C-alpha cells in the first residue's frame, strides 16, 4: 500500500516522520477525510475549502493550491485502486528550523509543514446494518470552543467516543449547556413531527460535508427542515435521530442512553434520506 508523504508516494512501511514533528509532539495539525466513490472524490471542493478554513484557524499556510491538491489526491486514489475509498489528508506544522528549540510551544520561525495522505478501501454500512440502526449514548460536550477546526488533536473526541464503545454503542451524542452539538465523530439530526432539525453551524461543532448535503437534499426534495438550536428535551423526545459523516453516511440511531428513539427502528425519513443520498452520490460521480 502506497501513502503520500511530503512530495513522495511510497510504501506505508517506508513512510517515516521525525519524533520532533509538531503533529506528534503537540497534535499541532489539521486533517480531512474525503470519500471516494467509483474512483472519484466526492465534494472535493468542499473538503479542500474546509481544509483551508482549518489551516486558517491554526494560522498555518496551505502548502498546496487547489490544483496541486487535486492532482496529488487523484494520484493517490489511482494507486490505491479500489472503486470506493476514504482518503485521509493531514497537514501538521512540521519541524522546527535549524537552530530553533527542539520542543517549544511558539510556532517555529521556519517550520516546513508535513503533508501525509493515506487512501483505504471505504466500507459503508450494509443494508442489514442500516435496517438495524445503531445505539448511542449522551455525554456533556467538554471539548474546547473551536470545534469548527478539524484538528488532528482528537483526544477529547476519543475519550467521548470511547464512552459509547464501553456501552456497546456506535456514537456519543454531545450536549453543551442543554443543547445538542454533534457526535464525537459525526453530525446529529433530529426528526420531530416530520420536520428535520439540525443544530446551526458554529464554533461548537464541525459542519460536516455530509451535513450540508443532507440539508441540500432536504431542500431539493421538499422535506421540511429547520436549522436552529435543538434542546435536550427535543433530542430525547425525537421521532428519529440520525448520525451523519462522510464514512458513516446517514445512519439511524435507534436507542439513546438505552431508551428507544421513536419506534426504536430506523424511521421513514432516515430511509428516504439515505436513498436520496445514495442516488445523489452515484449521480454526481457519473456527471
Ligand atoms: N463532526 C465531527 C466531530 C467529525 O469528526 C465528523 C467526521 N469527521 C463530522 C462532524 C462529520 O463531517 P463529514 O460529514 O464532513 O464527514
TrEMBL record:
Coiled coil: none annotated. The keyword Transferase applies. Pfam families: Aminotran_4. It comes from the Bacteria. InterPro entries: Aminotrans_IV, Aminotransferase-like, BCAT-like_C, BCAT-like_N, Class-IV_PLP-Dep_Aminotrnsfr. GO terms for molecular function: transaminase activity. Keywords: Aminotransferase, Transferase. Belongs to the class-IV pyridoxal-phosphate-dependent aminotransferase family. This is D-amino acid aminotransferase. It comes from Thiobacillus sedimenti. The lineage of its organism: Bacteria, Pseudomonadati, Pseudomonadota, Betaproteobacteria, Nitrosomonadales.
Amino acid at each position: 500500500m502506497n501513502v503520500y508523504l511530503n512530495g513522495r508516494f511510497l510504501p506505508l512501511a517506508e513512510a517515516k516522520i521525525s519524533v520532533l514533528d509538531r503533529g506528534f509532539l503537540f497534535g499541532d495539525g489539521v486533517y480531512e477525510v474525503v470519500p471516494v466513490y467509483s474512483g472519484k472524490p466526492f465534494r472535493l471542493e468542499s473538503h479542500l475549502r474546509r481544509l483551508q478554513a482549518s489551516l486558517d484557524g491554526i494560522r498555518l499556510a496551505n502548502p498546496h493550491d487547489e490544483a496541486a491538491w487535486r492532482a496529488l489526491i487523484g494520484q493517490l486514489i489511482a494507486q490505491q485502486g479500489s472503486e470506493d475509498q476514504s482518503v485521509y489528508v493531514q497537514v501538521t506544522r512540521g519541524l522546527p528550523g535549524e537552530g530553533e528549540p527542539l520542543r517549544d510551544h511558539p510556532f517555529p520561525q521556519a517550520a516546513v509543514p508535513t503533508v501525509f495522505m493515506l487512501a483505504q478501501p471505504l466500507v459503508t454500512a450494509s443494508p442489514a446494518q442500516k435496517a438495524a440502526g445503531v445505539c448511542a449514548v449522551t455525554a456533556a460536550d467538554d471539548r474546547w470552543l473551536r470545534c469548527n477546526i478539524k484538528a488532528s488533536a482528537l483526544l477529547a473526541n476519543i475519550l467521548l467516543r470511547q464512552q459509547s464503545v464501553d456501552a456497546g454503542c456506535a456514537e456519543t451524542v454531545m450536549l453543551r449547556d442543554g443543547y445538542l452539538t454533534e457526535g464525537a465523530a459525526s453530525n446529529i439530526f433530529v426528526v420531530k413531527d416530520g420536520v428535520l432539525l439540525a443544530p446551526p453551524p458554529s464554533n461548537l461543532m464541525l459542519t460536516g460535508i455530509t451535513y450540508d448535503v443532507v440539508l441540500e437534499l432536504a431542500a431539493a426534495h421538499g422535506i421540511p427542515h429547520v436549522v436552529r438550536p435543538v434542546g435536550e428535551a427535543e433530542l430525547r423526545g425525537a421521532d428519529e435521530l440520525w448520525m451523519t459523516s462522510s464514512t458513516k453516511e446517514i445512519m439511524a440511531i435507534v436507542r439513546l442512553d438505552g431508551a428507544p428513539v421513536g419506534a426504536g427502528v430506523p424511521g421513514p425519513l432516515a430511509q428516504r434520506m439515505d436513498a436520496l443520498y445514495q442516488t445523489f452520490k452515484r449521480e454526481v460521480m457519473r456527471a
